[in-house]
Amino acid sequence: MRPGSAVAVEAVWAVGPQEGEATMGETLTLDDAPIVREVRGLVGALTDDEAALVRTLTPPDLDGPTLTRHLFELVNLLSTIRYDEAMAEYVYGVAPEWDGDIDVLLLGARVSKVMVECEMARAVVGRAA
Questions:
Q1: Can you tell me the distance from the alpha carbon of 97 to that of 7, in angstroms, rounded to the nearest whole number?
Q2: pLDDT value at residue 47
Q3: DSSP assignment of 1-66, as one string?
Q4: 118 Cβ partners below 8 Å, 6+ apart?
Q5: Could you give the CA distance from residue 38 to residue 44 in angstroms, rounded to a whole number?
Q6: Is 98 helix (H, G, I), strand (E, B) or coil?
């Protein structure tokens, strides 16, 4: 042990929590996260999957106009996936690794959906011919 290390440890304990004080920071559940509360206020109740999606797609450093834009993108995303199961499957499948804009995520979902629909239409036309 180095000569000065014991002093450093004593200093840390001196500024640590006193007896009876909390030793950990605030722990938030999915529903307690500020961004989830904001989105819930705009769209109503969220499922656990929707709350997780909101947290997954929200960078930690948003503020001001950027946060407002992000909130409305989230609202658009949620309203889209609530009413379109194919889009929802794509979004939930891609979102955990997604680090881009929500608009681009939705565009990818729309393109994928159209491609699947075109392939299905080709198969039907091919059988009819």
A1: 44
A2: 94
A3: --TTHHHHHHHHHHHSPPTTS--S-----GGGSHHHHHHHHHH----HHHHHHHHHH--TT--HHH
A4: none
A5: 10
A6: coil
Query: Mean pLDDT throughout 48-52?
Result: 94
pTM attached to this predicted model? 0.69
Give me the residue spans of the domains in the chain: 27-128
CA–CA separation, 19 vs 11, rounded Å?
16
- Max Cα separation, the chain? 88
Return the residue matching tokens 């206020």: 41
Q: What pLDDT is recorded for position 92?
A: 95
Q: Which long-range contacts (CB under 8 A, 24 or more apart) does 43-50 make?
A: 43/75, 43/78, 43/79, 46/78, 49/92, 50/78
- The amino acid at residue 54 is V
Q: What is the mean pLDDT of residues 58-64?
A: 88
